[in-house]
Design goal:
With 244 residues, the protein is mainly beta. The chain has 3 helices and 22 strands. It has 2 domains: 134 residues, Sandwich (Jelly Rolls), CATH 2.60.120.10; 70 residues, Sandwich (Jelly Rolls). It is globular and about 55 Å long.
């Protein structure tokens, strides 16, 4: 079950993918979207957006998924907010593997989802046994296991860990003794220094301070979410507390 009350975001994209269960997304753009297993929600915050994540009914059953936060580059991070939902995404079959492309491209399959920088997100449904996955050498990669266990360079990766795979590889071999599911993420290394606090991704403390003040005062920057939950309130960042 899930019940995350309205809260703000700045300068990032939330990429939400469910393996099981469902929940209801609401945001200050007026979006109201049920997401189910195998579907993708992608919300771009830009200069500011707010959203909630709620049970669609009294019970939503067991829910399992991942939400990845992608920092927006300077050319779009101060732009408008946006929301996309996809019921289906492209898949490609390989020996011992089904790959679903959430964002970016993998082989001949390309996702229709928005991306503001050169990156990729792929669900790997491993059926057991060895599989060789092609890599883009200019990307750096990591693997997050959601179910089962995956061997990477003779190291076992289980749920709860992120395996950093580095950059410069043309391919990599994964092995699993049985059905396993993992998320492969990668992209061109981000060339901007980030400053992050709470749900905000920016470049300076002043940008974060301005965003917090806007949320704390109910400024129209983040809009209003039509949710039955009261919005999440949070105290000021520590550098503002130090000035008091």
């Amino acid at each position: 079950m899930i019940g995350v009350a309205p809260h703000p975001h700045l300068g990032l994209q939330t990429v939400t993918w469910l393996f099981s269960g469902e929940f209801l997304h609401r945001d200050s753009l007026g979006s109201e979207q049920l997401i189910r297993a195998g579907q993708l929600n992608l919300m771009t915050s830009g200069h500011g957006v707010a959203h909630s994540e709620e049970n669609p009914g009294l019970r939503s059953g067991e829910m399992h998924g991942m939400q990845l936060w992608v920092a927006q580059p300077s050319m779009t991070r101060d732009g408008g907010a946006d929301f996309e939902h996809f019921d289906e995404l492209p898949r490609t079959e390989m020996s011992n593997l089904t790959a679903t492309v959430l964002v970016g491209s993998f082989g001949a399959a390309s996702s229709p989802a928005r991306r503001d920088s050169d990156h990729v997100g792929i669900e790997l449904d491993l059926h057991g046994g060895l599989v060789t996955v092609p890599f883009e050498p200019t990307y750096e990669y990591a693997l997050i296991v959601a179910h089962g266990a995956v061997f990477v360079d003779d190291v076992v990766v289980r749920p709860g860990a992120l395996a950093y795979l580095g950059a410069g590889r043309d391919e990599i071999r994964f092995d699993s003794s049985g059905p396993s599911r993992a998320m492969l993420i990668g992209g061109v290394p981000f060339d901007e220094r980030l400053f992050m606090w709470w749900n905000f991704v920016a470049r300076t403390q002043d940008e974060i301070s301005d965003a917090w003040r806007a949320w704390a005062t109910g400024d129209e920057r983040f809009g209003h979410v039509a949710s039955p939950f009261a919005r999440i309130e949070v105290g000021p960042p520590p550098w503002l507390l130090a000035l008091r």
